[in-house]
Amino acid sequence: MDANEIDYYSLGFNFIETKTMFISDYKNGEWDEGRLVPFGNFEISPAACILNYGQGIFEGMKALRTKKGEITLFRPEENAKRFNNSAERMLMPNYDTENFLKAIKRVVKANEEYIPPYDSNGALYIRPLMIGNGPIVGVKPAYEYKFIIFTVPVGPYFPEGFTGVDLEITKEYTRAAPGGTGAAKTCCNYAGSMLPAKLTKEKGFAQVIFLDAVNMEYIEEVGTANFFAMINGNLATPKSIGTILPGIIRKSIMILASKKLDLKVEERDISYKELFKDSCTEAFCSGTAAVITPIKSVVIDDNKRIFSEGEPGEITRKLYELLTGIQRLDIEDEFNWVVKV
Ligand code: COI
Asked: How far apart are the first and last CA of the chain?
């Protein structure tokens, strides 16, 4: 789509084609140097490992426009690291961190005209992905891989934005089990979350909250984001025990909460029952796409807990302002998280 035809002030989280993507191919045990090409289809064998056995991983990143017109990325080396951790879990080749960062910058530069303006609050979402591309038939890793980076201008992930979302705690579906792939950003984790998301949306909820698969008691994640709650005056988030996606925004929020807001941060098991007590005063979810999205209410069976009716909690708002302020360089980047393109 022509960059001039986009209304950057009313973007949702929907696919819009941009001009250029990056592709690199892995054959005979090594990556080629990669190239920028026009966004478009490519051929793939019907026997490709990704199509048959789901051997695929991805990342989510954003390029933002600052008030001065600069372009920023947020902790991109963390995405490169997580990408390689996911690759290891899925028996896929690593992609050199330096080359990953260089390729990200090249794609962003090439699609610069699609970066939403500072005052629109939008972003150029960056999607790096790797797929097992070579033909196979037995269940084993592919011999060939494709690394792709494409971009999409986006607004808020949840249309509700910062007014907050109503979530349903599901006791029917789980996202990941110990020893599984929950900590890897693999395509399959998201495919499995689509049915519970569809069913809950039909009931009027924005997403589900998944509980741990062993006890069906402890909170793991919101469908596409990490979970936080203020409980007894402390900021609590589920312990990362291999079933939770190690969010980069999650990690940053934990630092901001302790270093800037002087809060005690607890990474621990959080029973969903705690959300229904008065000691739990705020809840929100976090992610690259979700940023910080307040949770207005949670429901399980016939029990509903309302946290806010439109006005997000104070800590949620402060963390949102700190995080987005640093990301757009409105606030000093004292942790050296921002990388300019
Ligand atoms: C992100 O927050 O970037 C994600 O990858 C979540 C979702 C869009 C799959």
From this structure: 23
